[in-house]
Amino acid sequence: MGIMTESILKAAELAVPILGICIVLSLGVAAYLEPQKDYSRRTYIQMLLSCAVILIAECFQALPAAIAPVTLKATMFIFYASLSMICYLWTLYAYYWVSGRPAKNKVKAWLTAGPLIELLLLIVNLFTGIFYSVSPAGIYSRGTFFVAYIAFSYFYLICAIIVTAVRSAEINKKADKREQIMFLLCFLFPVISPCIQYVLPAMSLMGATEAIALLIVYVSIQQRATAQYAVERARSEDEYRAYEDSLEQLLTANSDALLVLRLNITKNTQNGGRGIAENVLKQREVKTIDDLREAFVPMIKDPQEAANFLKITDRSHLIEQYNAGNTQLHITYHRMMDTGETHLINVLLHMLQNPASGDIEGVMYSMDIDRQDKEEKVISAITMREYNYIALIDVETENIHYQYADDRSDASIRFTMGKYDAMMQHIAPNMRDSAEPGSELGKVSLQTVINELNRQDEYSYVFEYKTTAGDIRNKKLAYRYLDNTKTDILFFETDITEEMRQERERAEALQKALDEVRHADAMKSEFLSNVSHDMRTPLNAILGYTGLAKSVGSLSEKDGYLDKIGSAGNVMLDLVNDTLDLSKISSGEIILKPEPHLCGELFRKVVSSVGPCADEKHIKLTVDDSRAANVPILVDALRLQEIVINLLSNAVKFTPNYGQISLVIECEQMDEHTVHDMITVSDTGCGMMPEFLAKMYEPFAQERQTSDTVGSGLGLAIVKRLVELMHGTISVRSEIGKGTEFKVCLDFERAETMAEAANDPLQTWSVLNGRRILLAEDNAMNTEIAKAVLESKGMTVICAENGQTACRLFAESEPSWFDAILMDIRMPMMNGRDAARTIRKMNRPDAAEIPIIAMSADAFDDDIMESLKAGMNDHISKPFQPEKLYRVLTENVRQ
Q1: Which of 51, 134, 736, 821 would give a disulfide with 687, using CB separation of 3.0 to 4.6 Å?
Q2: Reduced to 3 states, what is the DSSP secondary structure of residue 427?
Q3: Which pTM does this prediction carry?
Q4: Which positions ≥6 away from 514 have C-beta within 8 Å?
Q5: Cα–Cα dist 728/732, whole Å
Q6: How does pLDDT run across 212-223, given as a tens digit for each residue?
């Protein structure tokens, strides 16, 4: 009977863990077949595995005679270690159950502390047997501190679960108390096993109670999952309805879109849409997103924009962007339209996830924004050109509720949103009113602005400020009401620094022009005064000597007065010529006529013309051309001689008797194409004051004038302008009482050959004897003089008082009767040029051949050119030199 009872107890002891194993196996299969393998499922499966190990160990404990002592000892270690592990997993699962999320590292550290201590105690027990032991005979027995060990393990578990529940209740104030009680019952159920085990030490209940607890938890999980599934399904249905609504809104929005398409990005399909390009897509059989990209790319004009389009619309890129939270993408490109115009197109892609299938879908718009883009750019360009800042001020709230500011605004004067007056108080210290310093804030306060706008349509205020870079800028603030309601004030800020600079420059230019006009007027008055004085001086001499010549009876005295009259006339002629030369140079009418010459010949002629004047004052004139380049150069000989003659004449004029003057010509440098010459004229004269040196090149400028230094004051002005016309330089060094030195530097182009000199043979003008000359001259005195000069060489002179008479006399004469015609230009009835043209057009054999020579006071180059254009053969300027008149006639009359 005792043996049977013991066998029944052994069978019951073995049946309990086997039952637990069956429960754990069933729960493991169920947990494994769950579709969602989240943190909760994974932790639960780990708990099942630990429980299975405990149950298997309990099976071994029920058969102590069948296993070796060493195996039993290892089995017991694994049993208690698995018990620690399941307690640890139990606390993790409890934390997840109440919080809904895995434990963080800090929480895990606290929950791991107990099991680690238990594992260390088990290792200590292997050597001491203080908790349990296995005898050499294979008998298991509890140690002295077994109850303390078990109590610590489960007490730690109870504390961890209770603390977790309480903490959850504190965080989640709305938590259901029934749910909290159920949680405690489920997760504290395994604690029953050590209590029963302590009362019935022969029963192996610890694994079984854990298995039953896991079963209870699984049932609870399923109930909870069912409730959550219902909630999630309701939410999913709501999400799907929201998805459908969003999709419908996206598909029906933007009625002006060129194209609207529905896309499935995950499955690479396009599900059609609407728009003007839909037919094109159908014709090209566009079924996938990749096909769509290939259809779009040829429409894109810029290759860079096409590459960007392909990059952004790549499906992997789109899915990556969606996962990153970017559900809206846009692309702009330029497209060639059917009209031939290029328009800016904007493509918008809205992405969303289908809650039913989980696919990422999208709605794509293609919109023509070319007009809008151009309007915005035009408005922006105008705004940026005119204004740095635009704002609206609400009159009631005094707030700036709209503003535009470009990035050109300086930090020291930057306007911001908020209260207008507060902003101005912040900015005012950087503003400066040049007219009324210190009044800046008062002039831009809102009340001042409102008061001013009640009196006028627009109020503006200009101020200066210093930028952070230290520059001074000018700003203009302008205010006006936005509309007739007067509820908003339109506020502009403009940088007018450039405008004010230009205004100052214009004012300065006007002032400069006014000063120049006044200076020119003063110079004109001075010019007329000087010309009047300088002309009246020789004119007075001419008239005076004429009177004296009439009053004396001696022929020798008359001849003396006539010589003086001639000298005074030459002075007056030089004055007129100088004045005309200066005028021609200033107006640019003088054109240099360079011809091949040797420097030596040019300066010999100059010295020969100035030498007699120097000899009269016993002045020693030396010429040094030893360092000159004896090569042909291209030079306007007349103008170069004019420069040197003026400098030498001044030197003679202002050098006292027995003084010295030197002319030095030296070549500073010579290369293959150019000769660089320096001409130096120095004297031992009176010198010039430093104050006069600054204005010595001005017309009629004369430092001193005596009876020995009479002149026009134009010589140096002519020299300066001729040197500049030749692209040269002139410098001067002068000292009072010691003399003056002028240096002229000129560059001459080298000439390859010399022009042949025209040496006039000794003239007796016998060829002119007996010639018949038609003289057209309206001035009686000029007619008388010219007639006398011509008749002195045996010529017959027929006079005409105007061009019309000259044409008539020529027309009535026999062909070839006249040998030449001398024609004045300015005559009444018909001028000389018109008369020449009329004669050239006459139908007679000599009309085209007869020499017509202009003889006029019009002496400019343009006057000479006009005479030649009118058909004249030559031009003689008045007053004429008889020798020149004879030479010109000799060259032109038929031999």
Answers
A1: 736
A2: helix
A3: 0.38
A4: none
A5: 14
A6: 555 555 555 555
